[in-house]
Write a structure and sequence with these properties.
Ubiquitin-like (UB roll); six-stranded mixed sheet; single chain; eight-stranded mixed sheet
């Protein structure tokens, strides 16, 4: 969302990626492209694409797609948490129903045979939206805004690293070699020559994205060695979450073509900066089309200040969504460039909440807390939920910070268990997200933490083996 791109610029915020509105149009679209197979996909809690591949003919002639309920209770390592008094998994692992959202229909340009991909929504056997499906969670938050006559507009910025192929997890990751034949060793923020080292890969990213109808606003080289950032054009939160979900698949596939890995780990290398997913947010009045953050004379509105205050109060309570893995909290280390606080300021990148300079209609808040490893549906939902609660509760922020806040008091949890403890006790967030989602998310993340704790790190062997 650039400074001269007002939130009201969107002609139709619900426009689809490909403009395919229904099953008849989808059938025509697929036939025109001779699509033979369809990847029927759904993002799980971690943002991993789950689903089924099926021939196009079977897709239209077969029954509603089903998959077991356990796909929304699976950890990143493929395990399942044990039931407790709050988390009760479907004991029989019965089927859920999945309905396609035809607005997401697009090609899979890296497949050799003509293939399409189509994002689905999860429903119970009774026909209710599944409370734990991330896409439904975001829809639930967007409904809160809709009931107020508002429409959020967001623009994500996604950072990622290119690394040399690494098949042994015991070895640290390393930057890849560019066209010069040498890996990067220094900081190259905004360097065009460093970006040009990977021209062929970047061309593939743009080409694959264009074939899917994904719109890249800008691409830059970030601070880390072979660290990139892609900025997406501003728009409807659900459509942009879909795009981030598909972009991650696309960038990984493009990197593999060039014998590299693309990783969205929050902190993949100990001596390099972490990777973030900054979220720019504004809110439009649906009736007038005007940004509710700006008054008639361009002044900041009380709604904007309350939106900021909501983030200040509630971001620590949803940090387990913004930083969903054990590795995520390494990004908030003392020497990191990532914000460790929820202060706010004008064009200040040392605070967690930045107000970029812009004209009044483009006024927005940039949430700099989420990591690039966050599920885009959940991170956007959580960020918008913070702002919404700030508005409806009439909260007021503290004064904006104009100085360097890098070493100011930390207000964010420093580890996953602490973050989960805040989330599961936040009554306002439980009401927004639903008890079932909070209990499921909590159980998954505690199980992942226990799995992590079973692994002995090189640091422990280095400093404890012969010294304690």
């Amino acid at each position: 969302m650039t400074a001269d791109a007002p939130a009201s610029e969107i002609q139709n915020p619900s426009d689809s990626l490909r403009g395919v509105p229904d099953v008849d149009a989808a059938r025509e679209w697929l036939n025109a492209r001779n699509i033979q197979d369809i990847e029927c996909i759904v993002p799980d809690i971690a943002g991993v694409a789950r689903g089924k591949m099926m021939p196009t003919g079977k897709f239209f002639s077969g029954p509603v797609m089903t998959m077991p309920a356990s796909i929304f209770a699976q950890t990143i390592s493929g395990d399942y948490p044990e039931d407790d008094d709050r988390f009760q998994h479907n004991a029989t692992d019965g089927d859920l129903y999945f309905r396609p959202d035809y607005s997401t229909l697009t090609t899979v340009p890296w497949e050799t045979d003509p293939t399409a991909q189509l994002i689905h929504d999860a429903y119970t056997r009774e026909g209710d939206p599944l409370e734990t499906a991330p896409r439904n969670v975001l829809k639930r938050v967007l409904k809160l805004y809709e009931d107020k006559g508002w429409e959020p507009v967001i623009a994500p910025e996604i950072e990622f690293y290119l690394v040399r192929p690494n098949t042994d997890p015991d070895y640290p990751l390393e930057p890849p070699r560019g066209r010069s034949g040498r890996p990067e060793v220094g900081r190259q923020s905004y360097s065009i020559s460093a970006l040009n080292e990977f021209d062929d890969l970047i061309d593939d990213i743009y080409d694959l994205s264009e074939q899917q109808g994904l719109e890249i606003d800008t691409m830059i080289h970030e601070e880390g060695a072979a660290q990139m950032e892609i900025n997406l054009r501003h728009g409807n939160p659900l459509a942009l979450a879909d795009q981030v979900f598909l972009f991650k698949r696309t960038i990984r596939e493009a990197a593999l073509r060039h014998e590299m890995y693309a990783t969205f780990m929050s902190k993949p290398m100990s001596n390099q900066p972490g990777s973030a997913m900054h979220i720019h947010q504004s809110v439009v009045d649906k009736e007038t089309g005007l940004n509710i953050f700006a008054g008639e004379n361009g002044e900041e509105t009380p709604l904007f200040l309350s939106f900021i205050a909501g983030h200040q109060k509630y971001l620590p309570k949803v940090s387990c969504i913004m930083a969903p893995f054990v590795n995520s909290y390494r990004r908030f280390s003392k020497t990191s460039t990532a914000p460790v606080n929820v202060y706010w300021g004008y064009d200040n990148r040392t605070v967690g909440l930045r107000v970029p300079y812009s004209n009044a209609q483009a006024r927005r808040l940039e949430n700099r807390i989420p990591g690039s490893d966050a599920n885009p549906y959940l991170a956007i939902a959580a960020s918008l939920a913070c702002g919404y609660l700030g508005i409806v509760n009439g909260l007021k922020p503290d004064s904006p910070k104009a100085d360097d806040c890098t070493d100011r008091a930390r207000s964010l949890p420093r580890g996953l268990p602490e973050a989960l403890g805040k989330f599961e006790k936040a009554d306002e967030m439980i009401e927004v997200f639903g008890e079932k989602f909070v209990a499921t998310y909590r159980a998954i993340k505690y199980e992942e933490f226990e799995t992590f704790m079973s692994v002995i790190s090189p640091w422990e062997r280095e400093y404890l083996l012969l010294n304690v």
